[in-house]
Amino acid sequence: MNNKFKIVSNTSKKSKAGDLYFTFFNGSILAKKEGNTINIPNLDEIKELNIQYENEFFLGKIGTYACFGIEASLKFNLSENYKLIPLYEFGESIDEEVFLAAGRANQILNWDRTHRFCGKCGSKTENKKDELAKVCPSCNNVMYPVICPAIIVAVTKGDKILLAHNRGFKNNRYSLIAGFVEAGEDLKSTVKREVFEEVGIKIKNIKFHMSSPWSFPNSLMIGFFAEYESGEINVDGNEIVHADWFTKESFPNIPQKFTLARKIIDEFIERNK
């Protein structure tokens, strides 16, 4: 698929044969393998698998294909051509537009799963009919999908970039400094704070680069470039266990192509040709 994923606000959209169904179970997404290609099953295929689910959410469109997100309520039998794949692994195998739709499905389904009861009075919630929201029939509290803003920053020092190894990263992977925005904090303050907390250096000339949703489970990543100002690398030892300056010729294992971190790193490479 070479078409852009487009979010369409239409909660009353009805599904039809051929529509794509982004189906999750226990945190993994259902994919259909056809030769060397990974595809999303359509409505007819979901019916053939007899997948049981409670809610379906219209996600938007990829080209002419309407996209829906569902979460299987019971384990189902997989035929030979189907498999359940963790979302991150899925992102390594498919087009960016399909990953964006899958990520939106994951965010909405996570919100659906965690907002079935009102946080104000404890009553069971209902899906709002005119927009993507939950409403409490007892106290009229309205709950929208939760989005958590986070920054990610490429700190540069001449022809070098700061890369860090997080304790939770697999395969000795290194990435950029990132962290969540605190309540009452502006984005540039978050960038300065996260860099200083995690590696002990001060930065300057912070400039926005690009943003992207990060659906693990509900972040919006806001990407920046910044320049080294002063200090020596001193990792926190808790979250970050090692960090260093790298030229484009000396990179360690870095994030996959579909991630915002990799797109920013690739931009650094382009700027240093």
Automatic annotation (TrEMBL):
Pfam families: NUDIX (PF00293), NUDIX-like (PF09296), Zn_ribbon_NUD (PF09297). Its cofactor is Mg(2+). InterPro entries: NADH_PPase-like_N, NudC-like_C, NUDIX_hydrolase-like_dom_sf, NUDIX_hydrolase_CS, NUDIX_hydrolase_dom, Znr_NADH_PPase. Residues 145-268 form the Nudix hydrolase domain. It comes from the Bacteria. Keywords: Hydrolase, Magnesium, Metal-binding, NAD. GO terms for molecular function: hydrolase activity; metal ion binding. Its EC number is 3.6.1.22. The keyword DNA repair does not apply. It is an enzyme of class 3 (hydrolase). The keyword Protein transport does not apply. Coiled coil: none annotated. NCBIfam families: PRK00241.1. This is NAD(+) diphosphatase. It comes from Clostridium puniceum. The lineage of its organism: Bacteria, Bacillati, Bacillota, Clostridia, Eubacteriales. The gene is nudC.
